[in-house]
Amino acid sequence: MGHREDLLEGAKRCLLAKGFVRTTARDIVKESGTNLASIGYHYGSKDALLAQAYVSLVEGMGDAFDGDGTVDAAAPGSLERFERVWANIIATMKEPGSVWRLSMEVLAFGDRLPEVRAHLAAAQREAGRGLVPLLMGGREEDVSDGTADTLGAFYVTLMTGLIAQWTFDPAGAPDAERLTAGLRQVVEAATAPADGASAADASTDGAP
User: Fold this and answer.
1) Residue partners of 115: CB distance under 8 A and separation at least 6
2) How much is the pTM?
3) Of 16, 21, 44, 100, whose CB has the highest number of CB atoms within 10 Å?
4) pLDDT at 1
């Protein structure tokens, strides 16, 4: 590997061991076997490198998200697929030393990490773009900006909330089954007859 790749791998190891705030440029240099000048040359700054390292860590979890292909056995857009995908994602949140704790660090100490926060905020659209095909089928490159900014943003918001709950209250955080049950209630309410009758009432219309 060249210095750019060495720096990225070293930064990833530092993040997992020490987090954003406690990782210094010298830590990364020592871990990667490079030099301080390389950080500026290849990434512009330590914080920009750390942000890219975090994104790379998350991207590396793609196989865990799709369950090594088992998600594709469920119909795109179905509640079954929704539950399978989120079960896989939530499983990564339960792991000791989960990478998701780093997201909470940015939320809690964002004023001390302004460049990291700015880089990660800019990556939100692409994060949503990656989640859309996982849940709805299709290819990431075919997801439009409009879909990334609506459906993708919805999924990212859901994930952020789950990360927060699994970080602060793992005993009470929802699993995929409860999450899907909640979504089912939302869908049923949204598709209920507009005249105010309940779905159960509507199903008996015209009955003797």
Assistant:
1) 45, 47, 48, 51
2) 0.85
3) 100
4) 64
| φ/ψ of residue 49, rounded to 5 | -65, -45
The torsion region of residue 138 among left (phi > 0), alpha (psi -120 to 50) and beta comes to left
Q: What percent of the chain has pLDDT over 90?
A: 78
Largest Cα–Cα distance in the chain? 83
Count the Cβ atoms, other than its own, within 10 Å of residue 145: 10
C-alpha distances out from residue 111 to 55, 114, 116, 166, Å: 20, 6, 10, 23
**CA triple 160-154-171, angle to 5 deg:** 35
Note the helical H segments in 78-113: 79-94, 101-108
Rounded Cα gap, residues 83 and 162, in angstroms: 14
Q: How far is CA 184 from CA 180, 190, 206, in A?
A: 6, 10, 26
Which tens digits make up the pLDDT trace of 50-104?
Answer: 999 999 999 888 888 988 778 988 999 999 999 999 999 999 999 888 899 999 9
| Distances 194 to 18, 146, 186, 188, 202 between C-alpha atoms, Å | 54, 28, 15, 12, 10
